[in-house]
């Protein structure tokens, strides 16, 4: 269960109150073990765990693709994900990722071929994102990430993922693309959260050329995006958006 109804007393400015319920999101602690070593401790929501773990291991550089994972099992009521993988990279200490900040990726960042999507694609994703459903609609406490994956024939599919953490929501979307064997160069991400530098690193590490956000980036994220060719589109609202393409940082 991802949510729980909690009794609350709702108070109004004139002083009167009423008894009602608030639906709160449930935190799901998850430990990830690779080849017998704990590599991650996450707080997430208890859905799309395989996509979350696959995306996180991919953007951290622990796996190269979904085929590197040779087995995937759960223990302790799903709170421990035990993975065997064809990888030589296995950190000795767990990286603790809370719901606010994710550790920096260990993956070597490579330049991305610059891609600027057309206006119709961008505003089509904005319209899709405005359909507030799922956990966020119930609780107001979940981040959402939409991934658009384009096929060779030009058609595209969209998949929506939610989590208590914006980083986890992005990892779920990336994991979906990895497990589905989509070409990352033909994907676009749309996130509900602001874009700090570690989020930009994660998307660059995934090899996805476009990141759209309804929120704002940090200067460091813009600087990194310019360096590696990530197209950053922020304040993406129904009436406008801002494309960061030509920023030159001050000396």
Mean pLDDT: 87
| SS class | alpha/beta
Q: Which CATH top level class of the domain at 119-244 fits?
A: Alpha Beta
Identify the CATH architecture of the domain at 119-244. Answer: 3-Layer(aba) Sandwich
Order of helices and strands: EEEEHEEEHHEEHEHEHEE
Largest sheet, spatial ordering of strands? 9-8-10-11-12-13
**Rg (C-alpha, Å):** 19 Å
List low-pLDDT spans. 96-104
SSE topology:
Layout: E1 3-11, E2 17-25, E3 28-34, E4 37-44, H1 49-59, E5 69-75, E6 80-85, E7 95-97, H2 119-129, H3 134-139, E8 143-150, E9 156-163, H4 166-179, E10 187-191, H5 197-206, E11 210-213, H6 219-228, E12 231-237, E13 240-244
Parallel strand pairs: 3-6, 4-7, 10-11, 11-12
Antiparallel strand pairs: 1-2, 3-4, 5-6, 8-9, 8-10, 12-13
